[in-house]
Amino acid sequence: MHFPPDHFRTTAPPRRITGSEMIWDACVTEGVSLLFGHPGGAILPAYDALAIYEAEGLLHHVLVRHEQCAAHMADGYARATGEVGVCVATSGPGATNLVTGIATAQMDSVPIVCITGQVPSPMLGTDAFQEADIVGVTQPVCKHNYLVTDVADLPMVMKEAFYIAREGRPGPVLVDVCKDVQIAEGEFRYDMEVKLPGFDPYPASWQDALVDAADLINAAEAPLIMAGHGIHLAGVSDVLLRIVEKAEIPVVTTLLGTGNITETHPLSLGMGGMHGEAYANEAVQACDVLIALGMRFDDRITGRLDRFAKQASVVHFELDKAEVGKNVQPDVAVVGDLAETLPALEPFIHPNTHAEWLASLTDRKLSSAGKDILTFELDELVPPFVMRQIWSETTNLRDPSDVLVATDVGQHQMWESQYFVHERAGQLLTSGGLGTMGYGLPAAMGAQMAWPDKLVWAIVGDGGFQMTMQELATIQQEKLPVKIAIINNGFLGMVRQWQQLFHDKRYVGTPVLSPDYVMLAAAYGIPACKVEEPGQVAEAVRAANTTDGPYLIDFQVKEEVNVYPMVAPGAAVDELIRRPHIVQDHGGVVPSF
Amino acid sequence: MKHILAAWMRDRPGVLNRVTGLLSRRNFNIDSLQVSASEEPGISRMTFEVSGDDRTLEQVRSQLIKLVDVTRVESFAQEAIVKRELALVRVAVGPDERRQVLDLIQVFEATVEDISRTDMLIQIVGREEKIDSLIGLLRDYHLLEMVRTGPVAIVRSAVANVESEPALEPARDTWQGGGV
Ligand SMILES: Cc1ncc(C[n+]2csc(CCOP(=O)(O)OP(=O)(O)O)c2C)c(N)n1
Ligand SMILES: [Mg+2]
């Protein structure tokens, strides 16, 4: 069989094919070329049909070693491209293994489509072998989902699934296809219009509010922008930069908004929130107008809500109406797609200067100890130093726009966000909303598959890496040149930090034993090295960056180092635990962080 | 404060589950819930009461409308609606007490749906308070069994009297798919 060139047009004439072929035809027509998955009995007909698509070079299936990673890879692919990522699993355990990945994508608004096999429709509800009600299970953690019991419904379901995943605020959609449906034949066409009366992805009545928003912003003496993931999703970081420069407004980002404006920009204050710099959080508590763009006032950014930016008028630009007023009641809400609302705002914003406000921020910046940590003559290997070295060595070699970073969850994730100097929106892939350990490695792999020529670093902890390190095999099978930095502190570090600060240092369940990662990597055929001293960092990073293929570095860092600043849970964002004073006062002496 | 809402949804398998699942996982306090057909084929109408302040109401509405199968959500001011419940009550009444019970039934404009030597099946339709008081009175006899719907509601005139919109929202009569 050979597909004629116009086979995958939406206008191709209807034809009779099997349900399995419908799934793949729909994927190809949607522009999908990669599938991350793991086969099993209930999805076997679909895998069988995949042979021809693989042979024709239309679809490539990446065999993961755990379905959670299939969802994370699809997620990483989607974040790195803005396109829908696709993962595939069998029924029952295959499908339930996807759940963490689906919830991760849902919390961070990432468009993925998950295709699962299901037991044959006559057996539904009988506790058949490997039957699990995955539609019921995933309902609370996805944007929408479908159970397909009739092949006649399949083309429309596939079309709706991609549409819903992609349009509006993106998110995961699951399509559960009964095995008999995969085998059955039906008419396939893809020219139908998606009609979903209950799905209005782009609310459009924001014009009036826009003028009010502009008035507030123009009148502000101490305006501050808080820019979130929505800026990247809408692809408007260029518009943001123009507005920021025109009206001289400083910018704090959320974790997922990292890089919305280049962090070397004088108006960038970096990330705010629980581990944001003190000056970023102080700016939030001192501004007179807070302009929230594409973000949802998550508790990690607001700290104690009833003391969050109380002095400020709040303007909220957001696509999802349900996020407006959920946590913070804005004075003006502009509910619409930032790709429309922000360009529409631009002409209303007056050129302006805020010298006094910026000077006060500069003062706050100078009292921060962030830079001191990096200029120390260190004789111990501390993570902030490692982070900055990875960044500088990598960007010495490659243009920063060619570098992508995926992090896992924990201390290293926060250090990455503090000490890498993010250049652009979307450069950092991280699980912000769900905080999913194990995310970093598979997300890096998904991003690498999307951009084979970019330099992709996975920055992971010794705890989280051990949750998904089986994917080293997938790295080898797919020949992915991902660079892996394990920040090996012998602990579930972030939890240990909380135990140290809030539970009298009772380290219950947090010391974590690691294998010899260099030997482990060798078992998979991946070159690796161990770094124990500050002087070895740069060379190791250079080795990784210049090795053709994957590379793993085991950074054996000082164990009990804390992430500062820190807003303790229940505290207001400006009630920070600062970096210990010794760091600020005595350059050169190794502090006990 | 109690708010009464109506939601219209595509009549799909599991749609009720989606709605009730959302209400419970978002921690909304639902006092009653009724599902029925609507005037439009293929669209069900759910009537429910939710307790909370205006912000809660606003959240319920904007979270609900995000569900792909939910096509419309409205909330009503209590004064603007006709709200009714139905109850079926079986009471043990022998021939001696029948007259008294029939008198009560007449006052409440209830009906007798079935009667035997030992008991009587009564149907009452009306406002919550009316049903409460009849049931209260019937408890003087031996109340054997009872089933009761929650309220269903509809606005009085053709123009929907939607509860005053919060300041953020431009005035709109209905909520047609306003989410993402
Ligand atoms: C799947 C999952 N389980 C538990 C947690 C809670 N948690 C958050 S950070 C953390 C420690 C992570 O340890 P490690 O990967 O070694 O990173 P470190 O903090 O030491 O840098 C844990 C257990 C989580 N976020 N995700
Ligand atoms: Mg660790």
Automatic annotation (TrEMBL), chain B:
Catalytic activity: 2 pyruvate + H(+) = (2S)-2-acetolactate + CO2
Classification via InterPro entries: Acetalactate_synth_ssu, Acetolactate_synth/TF_NikR_C, Acetolactate_synth_ssu_C, ACT-like_dom_sf, ACT_dom, AHAS_ACT, AHAS_small-like_ACT
Known pathway: Amino-acid biosynthesis; L-valine biosynthesis; L-valine from pyruvate: step 1/4; Amino-acid biosynthesis; L-isoleucine biosynthesis; L-isoleucine from 2-oxobutanoate: step 1/4
Principal EC category: transferase
Gene Ontology biological process terms in this record: isoleucine biosynthetic process; L-valine biosynthetic process
GO terms assigned for molecular function: acetolactate synthase activity; acetolactate synthase regulator activity
PROSITE patterns: ACT (PS51671)
Gene3D superfamilies xrefs: 3.30.70.260, ACT-like. Chain A, domain 2
SUPFAM superfamilies: ACT-like (SSF55021)
Keyword match Magnesium: no
One GO term describing the cellular component: cytosol
Keyword list, A-Z: Amino-acid biosynthesis, Branched-chain amino acid biosynthesis, Transferase
Assembly: Dimer of large and small chains.
Name of the protein: Acetolactate synthase small subunit
